[in-house]
Specification:
This protein is of the alpha+beta class and 444 residues long. The protein has 10 helices and 22 strands. The chain has an 8-stranded mixed beta sheet.
Length: 444
């Protein structure tokens, strides 16, 4: 092949390895006796990986002692699993030392514990040994962090990450973990990534959701599609109490409650930044919706409590938020937080859209109107739907308060190119709503 067009970078496109054409070749020994050892199936790859991993899961006296220390006084089996998972996730430093077959074979669990560092497969293997010490079975899972690279129809070693599938006993309720699945052969499993320190046990990282992983068992392996968590598990609830002056100045406070991957994103952004520079994160966010604003206070709650919802509270003042026109004040009820997208503006896209996760995001803004003003005109309520999401908003008047409420939900991840027009219209309706204005009139 010659003169193959380059892959153009488009916003929110799938990984380039997914959209680019490629040719994969499998080769086998000519010797029939050797060739009989493998058919190149996922099961064969799993059997090979099991041979590399199983001996490295050996429980040492040091592992037994550490498990006893971490689970001392804990009776609940779920809490025991959480304690061991948190240790592997946050107390074992990530460091990859891969020599020879070390790209696929983990270091012995005892060595990982002794050195307190390891890569993804080291951390998964250590956790597997620790879980086995309390009688909990688990399976190493080979996966690619770029969703869509692995096809279930073509077994291959394009696997660049390793996580763990933890088998749950009958004593543990189905509701204990969000990402629990019923595997037809292995029973109830919860998938966990010990490498990602910000994602708590039971909340599968977004890049692993709806992605194929090779579950490695003693008898071989099986390609398995990890679950896509519903939109309700990734929530943003933003409420605001604001006040508008007759001169157009807007002041007030906002409270945000984030859960699931939306909490993970914010938590990671704040924890990866030096404390003295964290204020800039909020400034950048507000700057996408406001100008001439001043932040007068801000705080983050549960920042390092990974199992709990993240909260963000901030206060601000915006000079000239409402524009004056004679005896009128013109303001935008949607104060902060843009959902409308320009992904589909400009020249036609070549590639699908890939959303990060399914999510539901709600805004509820209450704006106290200045004395002497009444509402002259309000934006119409909006309801937009497509196969991948839904959106609705409304603006109402309650006494001297303007109330703007909306719900934005994405429930699927990949929009194929033949569906882009449908999504273009969806986001256009959102953008129009976000930019619409309410008009206040001085009563006298």
């Amino acid at each position: 092949m010659t003169d193959v067009p380059a892959v153009e970078v488009e916003p929110e496109m799938p990984p380039w390895e997914v959209v680019a054409a490629r040719m994969d070749v499998k080769y086998f020994p000519r010797d029939l006796a050797m060739r009989a050892k493998t058919s190149g199936s996922w099961n064969d790859i799993g059997a090979w990986a099991s041979g590399l991993t199983t001996p490295r899961r050996a429980i040492t006296p040091e592992i037994t002692a550490k498990v006893a220390e971490l689970t001392d006084g804990i009776q609940d089996p779920v809490e025991k699993i959480k304690a061991l998972a948190a240790f592997a996730q946050r107390q074992i430093r990530y460091a990859a030392i891969e020599i020879g077959i070390g790209g696929f074979q983990p270091h012995p669990a005892g060595e990982v514990l002794a050195h307190k560092y390891g890569d993804c497969k080291d951390k998964a293997t250590l956790l597997a040994a620790m879980l086995q010490a309390i009688g909990v079975d688990s399976y190493n899972v080979l996966i690619n962090v770029r969703r869509g690279v692995i096809s279930p129809d073509f077994p291959e070693l394009r696997l660049n990450h390793e996580i763990l599938a933890i088998r749950l006993s009958d004593k543990i309720a189905d509701t204990a973990f969000l990402d629990m699945v019923n595997h037809p052969k292995l029973g109830r499993l919860v998938f966990f990534d010990p490498t990602n320190e910000y994602v708590p046990l039971g909340s599968l990282p977004s890049y692993l959701q709806n992605n194929y992983g090779l579950v490695v068992t003693p008898g071989g392996g099986e390609i398995y599609r990890l679950p896509l968590l519903p939109a309700s598990t990734n929530r943003l609830l933003r409420t605001a109490k604001l006040e508008l002056s007759s001169g157009g100045k807007l002041t007030g406070e906002v409270h945000e409650l984030r859960s699931g991957d939306l909490a993970v994103q914010s938590r990671e952004a704040y924890l990866e930044e030096a404390p003295a520079k964290r204020a800039a994160i909020l400034d950048r966010f507000l700057g996408t919706s406001l100008s001439n604003f001043t932040v007068t206070g801000a705080s983050v709650g549960n920042l390092e409590k990974y199992d709990e919802n993240l909260t963000l509270d901030y206060k601000f003042a915006v000079e000239g938020y409402a524009k004056t026109a004679g005896n009128l004040l013109v303001l935008r009820p949607r104060v902060v937080g843009a959902k409308g997208s320009n992904l589909l503006s400009g020249k036609p896209r070549k590639y699908p859209i890939e959303f990060r996760e399914a999510s539901r995001q709600d805004d509820d803004f209450e704006i106290t109107l200045p004395a002497g003003y009444v509402v002259d005109e309000l934006p119409q309520a909006v309801k937009a739907e497509c196969a991948y999401g839904s959106y609705k908003s409304e603006v109402k008047v309650d006494g001297n308060k303007l109330r703007y409420k909306r719900t934005y939900e994405i429930n699927d991840l990949i929009v194929p190119t033949q569906k882009l027009n449908e999504v273009r219209d969806f986001f256009h309706q959102i953008a129009v709503d976000e930019g619409s204005s309410a008009i206040l009139r001085r009563a006298n």
